């Protein structure tokens, strides 16, 4: 089942109108990056976001922790020295939102720093808090971020093994992995370690069919090997059509 990423789709609309737009476009589920400007948003901001999701009648299936100033190049706080308290405070806020909305997948971007003992401790903290709400934490390899150290599935698997928590999985973004030259065929052999999948075509990061990536072939392999989770549509619209869903 596909879900719409509200940070990439329907961006011509104010954030709080996007859940309804997704519903009108035929999506029953949505995901989103951290939807607030700060790690600790005001209560009224949180309530407005939650109401927008609930009123639209869509399910929130993916939510990112606060990742810093993304436009400026930040890619997460998990490995950021000196921001441990901010990270952990945000974890508790994020998990509380997820619990109220029934979201079970939380994306903790690694950050642009090497993996240290503190990084692993932060991930374990997030995993343990998420587990209390029946949620999982996912780690996402990224492209286009030179300082970001997690670029392949294998690098993510190594960190996941070190964290040693059953609810920490890979977020397999097929676009990022393909752009980084990773072998997407190996994913089907590690379905038990995959917590969420996202798609965009490559090159270009447009919707399926605008590039050269065999998206539906790779999704079919994942499904055949037991992946039953959501697939997030996280792309930059080119045709502004959702006809690609008919090919799945």
UniProtKB/TrEMBL annotation:
Q: Where are the transmembrane segments?
A: none
Question: Residue limits of the Xylose isomerase-like TIM barrel domain?
Answer: 20-236
Ordered alphabetically, the record's keywords are: Isomerase
The UniProt entry, under InterPro entries, shows: HyI-like (IPR026040), Sugar_Epim/Isomerase (IPR050417), Xyl_isomerase-like_sf (IPR036237), Xyl_isomerase-like_TIM-brl (IPR013022)
Q: Which Pfam families match?
A: AP_endonuc_2 (PF01261)
Q: Which Gene3D superfamilies match?
A: Divalent-metal-dependent TIM barrel enzymes
Q: What is this protein called?
A: TIM barrel protein
């Amino acid at each position: 089942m596909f879900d719409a990423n509200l940070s990439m789709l329907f961006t011509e609309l104010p954030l709080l109108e996007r859940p309804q737009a997704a519903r009108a476009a035929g999506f029953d589920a949505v995901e989103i990056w951290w939807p607030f400007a700060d790690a600790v948003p005001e209560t009224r901001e949180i309530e407005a976001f939650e109401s927008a999701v609930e009123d639209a009648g869509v399910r929130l299936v993916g939510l990112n922790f606060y990742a810093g100033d993304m436009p400026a190049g930040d890619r997460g706080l998990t490995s950021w020295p000196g921001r441990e308290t901010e990270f952990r405070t945000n974890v508790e806020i994020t998990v509380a939102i997820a619990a109220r909305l029934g979201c079970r997948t939380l994306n903790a971007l690694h950050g642009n720093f090497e993996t240290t003992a503190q990084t692993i401790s932060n991930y374990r903290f997030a995993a343990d808090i998420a587990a209390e709400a029946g949620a999982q934490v996912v780690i996402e390899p990224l492209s286009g971020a030179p300082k970001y150290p997690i670029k392949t599935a294998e690098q993510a698997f190594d960190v996941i093994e070190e964290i040693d928590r059953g609810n920490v999985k890979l977020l397999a973004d097929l676009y990022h992995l393909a752009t980084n030259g990773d072998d997407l065929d190996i994913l089907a052999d590690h379905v038990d370690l995959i917590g969420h999948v996202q798609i965009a075509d490559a090159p270009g990061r447009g919707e399926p069919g605008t590039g050269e990536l065999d998206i539906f072939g790779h999704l079919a392999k994942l499904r055949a090997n037991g992946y039953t989770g959501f697939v997030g549509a996280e792309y930059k619209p080119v045709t502004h059509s959702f006809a690609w869903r008919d090919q799945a």
